[in-house]
Design goal:
Length: 437
């Protein structure tokens, strides 16, 4: 019995050894998807993927790239990691219908392997101001020249079309996958309909690294490991979306406004402050037009001022108009992915205006409500004359559940109803209740 157990254990160990050896011989490919703006969060994700691939001696890192662009500084951080990587890096613009524009174009140029799916395009890399404001001619030329130099360097060292790379920056040219591949020399290395087709096509392919060395890719039967963003990166990346940033700005402003109207409520102020800080974090990444931002804040200010100034609705109308136009101008970009959606702007403007108008109406009604306490609360109260009161003489009246000393400018008989018209310390001035001022 013992001998049988030993034989079985040996067989299991032998199978485990073969399985381990097979896993070690199997190529390892890391895959990461970037479907977002190129900003510090997506840059951190891509750099971390390269670092892990280098540590695990992977055969290849493949980035599936779909982006309208982003920050040049973040693109340069990613490109530096690609250039310095021990592991070859491939960028695949896909699936069909995707694009890698602006900063995404520079990342594609920097990759050891640049691939595109059918029906995709790259290019349009002319730099714009990070604030969304128009740059003057001198600054625009300097920025374009700087980015064009980056594009030429990347294309030259990768053996790609330097002229077209420069035109993508200077002239904002875009290229379909066929135009990019058929150029002489080409801008990309191959067209792959799917991710699996890309992995199969790269097996045995010799790629030129940035330092001039050649590397042969081994991807046959590769074990593909997907690298996902962690929860922190996903949250921060979501916050950087224009629609989310706009909602955070609106909620933050509303929260602080409610807190100012109701000091001590605490919750609206805390939530509003957090939302505004998160919105300002997103605005550091997005091409924000500060004129639009000021219009949004000015519109909310006009709605708030309605409580203090009688404008017969003019402040309300002006606030709504300012809020609406500011929302349209807030994100200044031609790319639809970088613009605040109309389906978000209209409901937010309507809801925010309705809430603020409602709060203003409550405040105005509260101001106009007759006082019920103190001296002001005594004015116009009905009472009963307990004694005769007349000009030059005082008497007593009962009102508000109390007996007061009273004077009057007219004769008032005992038992008549009186109305309080003034209060002077502990003495009331009254008149007959039938008479109204």
């Amino acid at each position: 019995m013992t001998r049988s157990v030993r034989r079985f254990a040996c067989a299991v160990a032998l199978l485990a050894s073969w399985a381990t050896r097979g896993a070690e011989d199997q190529p390892l490919v890391y895959s990461a998807e970037v479907d977002a703006l190129i900003h510090p969060i997506s840059a951190r994700h891509m750099v971390e993927a390269i670092r892990r691939a280098d540590a695990d001696r992977a055969a290849l890192v493949v980035f599936t790239l779909r982006t309208p662009g982003g920050l040049v500084d973040s693109a340069r951080e990613i490109n530096s990691a690609i250039i310095a990587a021990r592991t070859p890096v491939a960028v695949w613009v896909g699936p069909s219908g995707a694009r890698a524009a602006s900063a995404g174009f520079l990342i594609t140029l920097a990759a050891d392997v640049a691939a595109m799916a059918p029906g995709t395009h790259i290019g349009a890399a002319h730099p714009v101001s990070g604030t969304g404001e128009a740059m003057n001619e001198t600054m625009s030329k300097k920025a374009a020249s700087d980015v064009a130099a980056d594009a030429r360097t990347l294309a030259s060292n990768r053996g790609r079309n330097v002229k077209l790379a420069e035109e993508a920056v200077i002239e904002s040219r875009s290229f379909t996958e066929r135009e990019a591949l058929d150029a002489m020399p080409p801008l990309i290395d191959l067209i792959a309909p799917t991710f699996d087709d890309l992995i199969k096509s790269l097996d045995g392919r010799t790629v030129k690294r940035f330092d001039g060395r050649s590397s042969v890719l081994q991807t046959k039967n590769a074990r593909v490991v997907a690298i996902e963003m962690n929860w922190r990166e996903r949250i921060l990346s979501a916050i950087a979306h224009p629609n989310i940033a706009y909602l955070l700005l609106s909620l933050g402003t509303l929260g602080l406004t409610i807190e100012l109207w109701s000091p001590g409520a605490i919750l609206p102020g805390v939530v509003g402050g957090i939302c505004l800080l998160l919105a300002f974090f997103a605005f550091q990444i997005l091409p924000v037009n500060y004129a639009g931002l000021l219009l949004v804040l000015f519109g909310i200010l006009l709605l708030v001022l309605e409580i203090k100034i009688t404008s017969f609705g003019l402040l309300t109308v002006g606030g709504i108009v300012s809020l609406l136009f500011g929302s349209f101008m807030l994100i200044d970009s031609d790319a639809p992915e970088l613009q605040v959606s109309l389906q978000v702007i209209l409901p937010v403007v309507i809801a925010l205006s309705a809430i603020l108008i409602f709060l203003v109406r409550i405040a105005i009604a509260s101001q106009r409500r007759h006082a019920v306490t103190g001296e002001s609360g005594m004015i116009d109260q009905i009472g009963l004359a307990l004694t005769t009161i007349g000009p030059g003489m005082t008497g007593r009246v009962q009102t508000h559940g109390e007996i007061w000393t009273a004077t009057a400018s007219e004769p008032i008989a005992e038992g008549e109803q009186v109305r309080v018209s003034a209060v002077d310390g502990l003495t009331l001035t009254v008149r007959r209740a039938e008479e109204r001022l």
